[in-house]
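Researcher: I've got a protein sequence and the SMILES for S-adenosylmethionine. Could you write out the 3D structure of the bound complex as C-alpha coordinates? I'd like something to compare against our soaking experiments later this week.
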Amino acid sequence: MAKSKIVDNPATIPLYQQEFYSCLYENKFLTKLFNHQRFLNILTFGYSKKLADACIAEVNPHQQVLQLGATFGDQLGQLASKIGVYGSLDVVDVSLTQLRYVRSKYRFTYPYMNFINRDVTVPFSGKYDVIICYMLLHELPLPTKSKLINQILANLAPEGKVVFIDYNNAVWWHPLKWFVKMFNRLYQPFAERMWQTEIKDYIVNRNSYEWHKTTYFGKMYQKVVITRKSNLY
Ligand SMILES: C[S@@+](CC[C@H](N)C(=O)[O-])C[C@H]1O[C@@H](n2cnc3c(N)ncnc32)[C@H](O)[C@@H]1O
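Model: Sure. Here is the predicted complex with S-adenosylmethionine in place.
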Protein backbone atom coordinates (compact mmCIF):
# COMPACT_ATOMS: atom_id res chain seq x y z
CA MET A 1 0.00 0.00 0.00
CA ALA A 2 1.23 3.49 -0.88
CA LYS A 3 2.72 5.09 2.23
CA SER A 4 1.08 8.16 3.66
CA LYS A 5 -0.96 8.93 0.56
CA ILE A 6 -4.72 9.00 0.46
CA VAL A 7 -5.60 5.89 -1.53
CA ASP A 8 -8.72 4.70 -3.37
CA ASN A 9 -11.19 6.64 -5.43
CA PRO A 10 -13.20 9.33 -3.69
CA ALA A 11 -15.97 7.53 -1.78
CA THR A 12 -19.59 8.71 -1.74
CA ILE A 13 -20.64 10.15 1.61
CA PRO A 14 -23.55 8.00 2.89
CA LEU A 15 -26.96 9.63 3.32
CA TYR A 16 -26.96 9.38 7.15
CA GLN A 17 -23.72 11.34 7.22
CA GLN A 18 -24.89 13.95 4.71
CA GLU A 19 -28.04 14.51 6.76
CA PHE A 20 -26.68 14.57 10.28
CA TYR A 21 -22.89 14.75 10.47
CA SER A 22 -21.43 16.42 7.37
CA CYS A 23 -22.03 19.85 8.94
CA LEU A 24 -19.30 18.80 11.39
CA TYR A 25 -17.05 16.47 9.38
CA GLU A 26 -16.94 18.64 6.24
CA ASN A 27 -16.37 21.85 8.18
CA LYS A 28 -12.66 22.66 8.49
CA PHE A 29 -13.09 25.21 11.28
CA LEU A 30 -15.11 22.83 13.49
CA THR A 31 -12.75 19.95 12.66
CA LYS A 32 -9.82 22.03 13.88
CA LEU A 33 -11.71 23.08 17.03
CA PHE A 34 -12.80 19.54 17.94
CA ASN A 35 -9.28 18.26 17.39
CA HIS A 36 -8.08 20.04 20.52
CA GLN A 37 -7.83 17.28 23.14
CA ARG A 38 -8.46 19.76 25.96
CA PHE A 39 -11.68 20.91 24.33
CA LEU A 40 -12.78 17.27 23.96
CA ASN A 41 -11.92 16.57 27.59
CA ILE A 42 -14.08 19.49 28.72
CA LEU A 43 -17.00 18.26 26.59
CA THR A 44 -16.71 14.72 27.96
CA PHE A 45 -15.76 15.42 31.61
CA GLY A 46 -12.30 13.98 30.93
CA TYR A 47 -13.64 10.75 29.46
CA SER A 48 -12.35 11.43 25.95
CA LYS A 49 -8.81 10.68 27.16
CA LYS A 50 -9.92 7.77 29.37
CA LEU A 51 -11.75 6.12 26.46
CA ALA A 52 -8.78 6.59 24.13
CA ASP A 53 -6.52 5.01 26.80
CA ALA A 54 -8.95 2.08 27.19
CA CYS A 55 -8.93 1.54 23.44
CA ILE A 56 -5.15 1.71 23.09
CA ALA A 57 -4.68 -0.75 25.95
CA GLU A 58 -6.14 -3.40 23.59
CA VAL A 59 -3.36 -2.93 21.02
CA ASN A 60 0.18 -4.32 21.09
CA PRO A 61 3.30 -3.01 19.35
CA HIS A 62 4.00 -4.32 15.80
CA GLN A 63 0.37 -5.23 15.05
CA GLN A 64 -1.55 -4.65 11.82
CA VAL A 65 -4.38 -2.35 12.86
CA LEU A 66 -7.40 -0.96 11.04
CA GLN A 67 -9.27 2.05 12.36
CA LEU A 68 -12.76 2.69 11.01
CA GLY A 69 -13.15 6.43 10.71
CA ALA A 70 -10.82 9.24 11.72
CA THR A 71 -11.22 10.60 15.23
CA PHE A 72 -10.78 13.96 16.89
CA GLY A 73 -8.14 14.61 19.54
CA ASP A 74 -5.10 12.46 20.29
CA GLN A 75 -6.57 8.96 19.93
CA LEU A 76 -5.05 8.20 16.51
CA GLY A 77 -1.64 9.61 17.44
CA GLN A 78 -1.53 7.60 20.68
CA LEU A 79 -2.54 4.49 18.75
CA ALA A 80 0.13 4.95 16.06
CA SER A 81 2.72 5.61 18.72
CA LYS A 82 1.90 2.32 20.48
CA ILE A 83 1.90 0.26 17.25
CA GLY A 84 5.35 1.55 16.29
CA VAL A 85 7.30 1.38 13.02
CA TYR A 86 7.16 -2.41 12.74
CA GLY A 87 3.35 -2.38 12.67
CA SER A 88 0.89 -0.64 10.40
CA LEU A 89 -2.19 1.49 10.88
CA ASP A 90 -4.80 1.83 8.13
CA VAL A 91 -7.22 4.69 8.75
CA VAL A 92 -10.30 4.35 6.56
CA ASP A 93 -12.72 7.23 6.26
CA VAL A 94 -15.45 8.12 3.83
CA SER A 95 -14.77 11.84 4.27
CA LEU A 96 -11.83 13.28 2.34
CA THR A 97 -11.93 16.37 4.54
CA GLN A 98 -11.33 14.24 7.65
CA LEU A 99 -8.66 12.11 5.97
CA ARG A 100 -6.77 15.15 4.69
CA TYR A 101 -6.87 16.65 8.17
CA VAL A 102 -5.48 13.58 9.95
CA ARG A 103 -2.93 13.03 7.19
CA SER A 104 -1.61 16.57 7.55
CA LYS A 105 -1.49 16.06 11.34
CA TYR A 106 0.35 12.71 11.37
CA ARG A 107 2.07 11.86 8.10
CA PHE A 108 5.57 12.99 9.09
CA THR A 109 5.43 11.63 12.64
CA TYR A 110 3.95 8.25 11.74
CA PRO A 111 4.89 7.25 8.16
CA TYR A 112 3.41 3.77 8.72
CA MET A 113 -0.08 5.28 8.88
CA ASN A 114 -2.08 4.73 5.68
CA PHE A 115 -5.06 6.88 4.75
CA ILE A 116 -7.81 5.20 2.78
CA ASN A 117 -10.87 6.98 1.40
CA ARG A 118 -13.53 4.30 1.46
CA ASP A 119 -16.95 3.50 2.89
CA VAL A 120 -16.26 0.84 5.52
CA THR A 121 -19.66 -0.76 4.99
CA VAL A 122 -18.58 -1.86 1.51
CA PRO A 123 -16.82 -5.27 1.77
CA PHE A 124 -13.03 -5.13 1.46
CA SER A 125 -10.16 -7.60 1.57
CA GLY A 126 -7.42 -7.70 4.20
CA LYS A 127 -6.84 -9.33 7.57
CA TYR A 128 -6.04 -7.33 10.69
CA ASP A 129 -4.84 -8.13 14.21
CA VAL A 130 -7.01 -5.36 15.64
CA ILE A 131 -9.95 -3.49 14.11
CA ILE A 132 -11.03 -0.36 15.98
CA CYS A 133 -14.50 1.12 15.73
CA TYR A 134 -14.22 4.24 17.90
CA MET A 135 -17.41 6.29 18.43
CA LEU A 136 -18.67 5.39 14.97
CA LEU A 137 -21.39 2.80 15.59
CA HIS A 138 -23.88 5.24 17.16
CA GLU A 139 -23.79 7.37 14.01
CA LEU A 140 -24.99 4.52 11.78
CA PRO A 141 -28.60 3.57 11.01
CA LEU A 142 -29.68 0.15 12.30
CA PRO A 143 -29.12 -1.97 9.13
CA THR A 144 -25.73 -0.31 8.58
CA LYS A 145 -24.65 -1.08 12.18
CA SER A 146 -25.41 -4.75 11.66
CA LYS A 147 -23.80 -4.89 8.22
CA LEU A 148 -20.62 -3.21 9.46
CA ILE A 149 -20.20 -5.43 12.54
CA ASN A 150 -20.55 -8.67 10.60
CA GLN A 151 -18.38 -7.51 7.77
CA ILE A 152 -15.42 -6.45 9.90
CA LEU A 153 -15.50 -9.76 11.77
CA ALA A 154 -14.70 -11.34 8.41
CA ASN A 155 -11.59 -9.14 8.17
CA LEU A 156 -10.09 -10.36 11.46
CA ALA A 157 -6.86 -12.35 11.49
CA PRO A 158 -7.38 -15.76 13.24
CA GLU A 159 -6.38 -14.43 16.67
CA GLY A 160 -7.48 -10.88 16.05
CA LYS A 161 -9.94 -8.70 17.95
CA VAL A 162 -12.45 -5.97 17.23
CA VAL A 163 -12.58 -3.11 19.73
CA PHE A 164 -15.71 -0.97 19.94
CA ILE A 165 -15.82 2.23 21.97
CA ASP A 166 -19.23 3.88 22.02
CA TYR A 167 -22.21 5.16 23.98
CA ASN A 168 -24.09 2.88 26.34
CA ASN A 169 -27.28 3.04 28.40
CA ALA A 170 -26.21 5.08 31.45
CA VAL A 171 -27.56 4.26 34.91
CA TRP A 172 -30.99 5.90 35.53
CA TRP A 173 -29.64 8.37 38.08
CA HIS A 174 -26.82 9.65 35.82
CA PRO A 175 -27.02 13.48 35.95
CA LEU A 176 -26.40 13.73 32.18
CA LYS A 177 -28.57 10.85 31.01
CA TRP A 178 -31.66 12.89 30.11
CA PHE A 179 -29.64 15.70 28.59
CA VAL A 180 -27.85 13.17 26.36
CA LYS A 181 -31.19 11.56 25.47
CA MET A 182 -32.61 14.93 24.42
CA PHE A 183 -29.47 15.81 22.44
CA ASN A 184 -29.58 12.46 20.65
CA ARG A 185 -33.27 12.80 19.81
CA LEU A 186 -32.49 16.17 18.21
CA TYR A 187 -29.15 15.58 16.52
CA GLN A 188 -28.09 11.91 16.62
CA PRO A 189 -31.16 9.88 15.65
CA PHE A 190 -29.39 6.50 15.53
CA ALA A 191 -27.51 6.83 18.83
CA GLU A 192 -30.29 5.72 21.21
CA ARG A 193 -30.16 2.26 19.63
CA MET A 194 -26.85 1.85 21.51
CA TRP A 195 -28.94 1.97 24.72
CA GLN A 196 -31.35 -0.69 23.53
CA THR A 197 -29.23 -3.32 21.77
CA GLU A 198 -25.98 -4.90 22.91
CA ILE A 199 -23.23 -4.85 20.26
CA LYS A 200 -22.86 -8.65 20.52
CA ASP A 201 -26.53 -9.08 19.54
CA TYR A 202 -25.76 -7.87 16.01
CA ILE A 203 -23.39 -10.78 15.36
CA VAL A 204 -25.00 -13.28 13.01
CA ASN A 205 -22.74 -16.22 13.87
CA ARG A 206 -22.69 -15.44 17.59
CA ASN A 207 -21.60 -18.89 18.78
CA SER A 208 -18.24 -18.44 17.06
CA TYR A 209 -17.22 -15.36 19.08
CA GLU A 210 -16.45 -14.25 22.63
CA TRP A 211 -16.99 -10.73 23.88
CA HIS A 212 -16.04 -8.70 26.89
CA LYS A 213 -17.80 -5.49 27.86
CA THR A 214 -16.52 -2.75 30.19
CA THR A 215 -18.49 0.39 31.01
CA TYR A 216 -17.32 3.86 32.04
CA PHE A 217 -18.76 7.04 33.61
CA GLY A 218 -21.90 5.56 35.19
CA LYS A 219 -22.29 3.24 32.18
CA MET A 220 -22.50 6.21 29.79
CA TYR A 221 -19.79 4.67 27.59
CA GLN A 222 -18.81 1.12 26.74
CA LYS A 223 -15.83 -0.80 25.42
CA VAL A 224 -16.66 -4.13 23.81
CA VAL A 225 -13.87 -6.45 22.69
CA ILE A 226 -14.83 -9.32 20.39
CA THR A 227 -12.56 -12.27 19.61
CA ARG A 228 -13.06 -15.61 17.86
CA LYS A 229 -13.52 -18.58 20.19
CA SER A 230 -10.15 -20.28 20.50
CA ASN A 231 -11.50 -23.80 19.76
CA LEU A 232 -12.45 -22.61 16.26
CA TYR A 233 -8.90 -21.91 14.99
C1 LIG B 1 -15.06 7.45 13.74
S1 LIG B 1 -16.36 8.52 14.02
C2 LIG B 1 -15.53 9.58 15.16
C3 LIG B 1 -16.49 10.39 15.96
C4 LIG B 1 -15.89 11.60 16.63
N1 LIG B 1 -15.46 12.44 15.59
C5 LIG B 1 -14.77 11.24 17.58
O1 LIG B 1 -13.62 11.57 17.32
O2 LIG B 1 -15.02 10.63 18.62
C6 LIG B 1 -16.61 9.62 12.67
C7 LIG B 1 -15.76 9.45 11.42
O3 LIG B 1 -16.21 8.27 10.75
C8 LIG B 1 -16.37 8.56 9.36
N2 LIG B 1 -17.40 7.67 8.82
C9 LIG B 1 -18.72 7.65 9.07
N3 LIG B 1 -19.34 6.68 8.36
C10 LIG B 1 -18.35 6.05 7.65
C11 LIG B 1 -18.33 4.96 6.72
N4 LIG B 1 -19.46 4.32 6.40
N5 LIG B 1 -17.16 4.60 6.18
C12 LIG B 1 -16.02 5.24 6.51
N6 LIG B 1 -15.96 6.27 7.37
C13 LIG B 1 -17.11 6.68 7.95
C14 LIG B 1 -16.76 10.04 9.31
O4 LIG B 1 -16.45 10.61 8.07
C15 LIG B 1 -15.98 10.63 10.46
O5 LIG B 1 -14.73 11.13 10.07
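Model: The first helix runs from residue 15 to 20. The chain has one domain: 6-232.
Researcher: Great, I'll pass this along to the crystallography team.
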